[in-house]
Amino acid sequence: MEKLTFFALSAPEKLDRIAAYLSERLTRELNRHRYGYVCIAMEAMEQLLLACHCQSINLLVESFLSTLRLLLEADKPHLHILATSSFVKFANIEEDTPSYHRSYDFFVSRFSEMCHSEHEDLDIQNKIRVSGIRGLQGVVRKTVDDELQVNIWEPRHMEQIVPALLVNLQQHTHTSRPGAQLLSESPAEQTEVCFRELLSRAAYGHITNAIRPVLMHLDSHSLWEGRSFAVQCFQIIMYSIQSQHSHLVIQQLLGHLDANSKSPASVRAGIVEVLSEAAVIEATGSVGPTVLEVFNTLLRQLRQSVDYQLTGYYDNTGKRETTSAEEKTLQDGVIKTIGSFANTLPIYQRSEVMLFIMGKIPVPGIYPALGSPNSGRMIQVMLLKSLLQVSERYESCNLLTALPSSFLEPLLSFTLMEDPEIRLLVLSILTSLIDRRHNAARLTAASVMFDVSVLELKEDRCSRQDNLFIRKNAQRLYRHVYLTCKEESSGRGHYQALVTLLAVLSVELANEEVVVDLIRLVLALQELALSPHECLSVFNRCGVHAVCAAFLNLLSQLGPPPPFHLHITQVIEHRQGNAPHLLPKDVFCDEPRLPQGELMVDETFLFVQSKICEALTGSSYSAHTERFNTPYTPQLTDEDRLSKRKSIGDVISLQIDMDPQYCPDTQQVHTEQITFETLKNAIEDRGGVEEEERRRRMQVVERFQTAPFEEIAAHCGARTSLLQSKLDQVFDLIIRPPPSPSGHSPPRSTPLYGIKFPDLCVY
Q1: Which residues are bridge partners to 386 per DSSP?
Q2: pLDDT band (50, 70, 90) for residue 219
Q3: Coiled-coil intervals in this record (predicted)?
Q4: Residue-wise burial string across 420-440, b where 16 or more C-beta atoms lie within 10 A, e elsewhere
Q5: Helix (H) or strand (E) holding 34
Q6: Do residues 86 and 68 make contact, with C-beta atoms less than 8 angstroms apart?
Q7: Is the separation of the CB atoms in 257 and 271 below 8 Å?
Q8: b vs e for 54-85, b when ≥16 Cβ sit within 10 Å of the residue's Cβ?
Q9: 507-538 pLDDT, tens per residue?
Q10: Is residue 51 a contact partner of residue 9, using CB atoms and an 8 Å limit?
C-alpha cells in the first residue's frame, strides 16, 4: 500500500488508470463472493483518495463512486455498511475544484431506503439504519455548500431524505429498547444529529422545501393527533434553523392549518399546539412581517370551530361528525396560541393586535353580521377570551396608548350585554390592562380585612399621561361600573371583579380628584342597592353593599386621612355584628347567607356622605369635597343599543316630546310689567344667576368632554328638528291667505306660491 501510494503521488496522471484497475478488480472479486478481497480493494481506494491532493482527486472519484454503487446494490448488509463508511470518508474531504457532471441521486435514494430497513435481526437492522442516516448526512455535507453541485434542496430529494429521518425519529419515540445499543449507535440519536445539520444549513429559499415533507409525513401517518411527536419534530426544527427564517416555518404551519380546516378537530388541535410551542421557542422572530395575518388565520379557525360545534359536523356535507368536547379543546388551544404569539411581539404591535381582535368581535346589528344568536354569542366569548390572553401580559407605561378610544369604547359597550359571561370577561380585560403592577392577583378574594401592605404601590404621583387618561375616560368607566351593578344576572364573579377593578384604579390612577369621584360612585351604588325602583334581587343588593364595603375599606388605607378610615371601620364593625350579609364574607361564598324576605338596611349600616365629607375636610382632599354636593348619576349613551334598554336617540326624542318647552303647538306669551322693584331685585339676584349660568356652562363643557359622539349628535339632531318645526310655522304664516270679508278663510288645497296666475295679473 505504501509503494502504491508513493507511485500514485509521483505520477498523479495515472490515478485514473489505477482507480479503474482497482474498481475492475473489486467487481471481479464481488462477483466471485470473495468479500475479503473486496474489503482490501475498497480500503486501497480509500487510502489513495485520502492521500491524493485536491487537484487530482477528480481522477479517482468516478471510479470510486461507481464502486460504491456496486456495493450498495449487493444484497449483503455488511457491504452496505462498508460502502456507506467509505462514502462518509469521501464526503469529509474538502475539494477546491467542483465537478459539474457528478450526480448523487442514486446515493440519496439508496441511503433513504437503508433508513427504512426492516431486517429480521434487530441489531443488523439498527446498523443498516445508522449507516443510511450517516450516508444521508454525508450527501448533505458534500452538496449543500457547493452551488455548482446537485441541488439537494429540490423537492424530489427532500421528499426522500426527510421522511427517512422522521421514521427513525418516530420509532425511537414510540418503541425504545434500553441497553440495546450505545447512544452513539442509536438510529434516533444519529437521526436528530443529521436532521439538525440539514436544517441548520437551509437558506431562506430552502425552508419551504424542507418543511413540506415534514407536514406530509405527519399527515400520512396521522401523527398530529398524538401531538407529542409533532411537537418534538418542530422543536428540533425551530432550534436548528437560523432565527431570521423561523417565521417561514410559522407561515407553513398556518397554511397547513388552513388546508386542514375540514379535518377532524384532533388534527387541527395538534397543529395548533405545535404552533403554540413554536411561538414559545422562537420569541423574537416567529411572527415575521405579516403580524396581523397570523392572528387573522387563528381567529378564522376559532370562528370556524364555533360553527362546527353548533352544527355537529366539520364538513359542509354533514357526513363527518364532531363533538362539542373536541371543538372546545381546539378552541382553548387556539386561544392559548394567540396569547403565545402576542407575547413575542413588542408593545406597540400588541396594541395593534388588540385593536384587530376587537374589530373582529361581532356586535348585534353591526358588521360582521351574525348567523344564529347562539353562534354570535359563542364567537363573542371566544374572541374576548383571546383578547384577555393578549392583555394579561401586556405592559405599557402609557394608558393612553394601551386603551385608546377606538379600543375602549367598543370594549366598554360589551359591559351592557345581557350575557353575564361576556360582562365578566370585559371586566377582566379592563383590569389586566390597567393593572401595571400586577396587583390583581393579590386582590382575587374581596374582603374587609384586606391588608394593603401586600400590594405594590406606586411611589410617585400619577404621570401626565395617566392624568390625561383618567380625565378623559373616568366618567365612562364609572358609568359602566354603575350599570354593571344594575344587572340582575350579575353573580359573585362580577362583584369580585368590580372590587378588583376599582382597587386597581385607585392604586394606578388615583389622585385627590379621582378618589373623591370614586367615593361618589360608591355612594351612588349604595343608593342603587337601597332603591325600591330597581328590579334587583336580595343577593344583588347584598352584593352591591359588599362591593362598597370592600372597596372603601381598601381605599381608606391608601391615603385618605384617619377620620375617613375611622368612619369606614365603624360601619364595617356594625355590619359584622348585626348585618354580616352586607359584607363580602357572607355574600361572596359558595352558599351566600342572605336574610329572608325583603332586605332591610338600618342607617347605622350605611356609609354617610356628610361624615365622609367632614372626614376629608382639612386635608388635601378638601378642595374637591364640594363635588359631594352633586350626587353621581350615570349618563346613558348610545351604547345602550347593545342591551335591552332603549337607545339614547329614543330617550332624547322621548324627552323632547314630553317637555312642554319643546312643544310647538303650545305657545304661551309671558308678559311682565317692569318696575323699579323688578330692576332692583334683578340686580340683587345677579350673583345667583351668574352662578347658575356658570354651572350650566360647566355641564355643557363636561358633556362635550365625556359624552360619546353619538349622544352629542343625537342632542344636536333634536335641536335641528325643533328649528325645522319653527321654520315650518313661519312659512305657514307667510303663505297664509288673507281673511275673507266674512271673517272666515276658506281652506285652500293648493298653497299660494303654487297657483299659476294669468299674465295680466302679473306686474
Answers
A1: none
A2: very high
A3: none
A4: bbbbbbbbbbbbbbbbbeebb
A5: none
A6: yes
A7: yes
A8: eeebbbbbbbbbebbebbbebeebbbbbbbbb
A9: 888 788 888 999 999 999 999 999 888 888 99
A10: yes
CA torsion sign for 686, 690, 696, 699 is negative
Q: Which residues, other chains included, contact 80 with Cβ-Cβ below 8 Å and sequence gap of 6+?
A: 71, 72, 74, 114, 128, 131
Quote the pTM value: 0.72
Find how far residue 499's CA is from the centre of its chain: 25
Q: Which H, E and C letters describe 379-394, residue by residue?
A: HHHHHHHHHHHHHHCC
For the chain, the straight-line distance linking the first and the last C-alpha, in angstroms and rounded, comes to: 135
Residue that the C-alpha cell 302679473 belongs to: 762
pLDDT bracket for residue 658 (50, 70, 90): very low
Instruction: Summarize pLDDT for 34-63 with one digit per residue, the tens.
Output: 888 888 888 888 887 777 765 556 667 788
Helix axes 405-413, 464-485, angle to 10 degrees: 10
Task: Tally Cβ neighbours within 10 Å of residue 718.
Answer: 16
C-alpha cell belonging to residue 192: 436528530
What amino acid is encoded at 510 in this protein? A
* Strand runs labelled E in 132-287: none
Look-up: residue for cell 329572608? Answer: 596
Give yes or no for a contact between 390 and 299, defined as CB atoms under 8 angstroms apart: no
- Between the alpha carbon of residue 236 and those of residues 169, 184, 551, 601, the distances in Å are 11, 18, 51, 66
User: With contact defined as beta carbons under 8 Å apart, do 250 and 279 qualify?
Assistant: yes
Is-cis flag, bond preceding 368, omega within 30? yes
Residues 763 and 759: their CA atoms lie apart, in Å, by 8
DSSP 431-489: HHHH-SS--GGGGSS--TT--GGGS---SSPPPHHHHHHHHHHHHHHHHHHHHHHT-TT
In 190-343 the beta strands, taken as DSSP E runs, fall at none
Beta-carbon neighbour count of residue 566 at 10 Å? 13
CB contact at 8 A, 128 and 119: yes
Helix (H, G, I), strand (E, B) or coil at 622: helix
Alpha helix (H) ranges present in 99-186?
A: 105-115, 122-143, 155-174
For the stretch 329-355, pLDDT in tens is: 999 999 999 988 888 888 888 888 899
What is the distance between the alpha carbons of residues 138 and 147, in angstroms, rounded to a whole number? 16
How high is the mean pLDDT of the chain? 80
Sign of CA dihedral 281, 283, 286, 287: positive
Question: CA-to-CA distance for 96 and 84, rounded, in angstroms?
Answer: 23
Virtual torsion, Cα 249, 254, 256, 259, nearest 10 deg:
-160
Q: What are 259-292's pLDDT values in tens digits?
A: 998 899 999 999 999 998 888 876 555 555 667 8
- Apex 195 CA angle, 200 and 155, nearest 5: 85
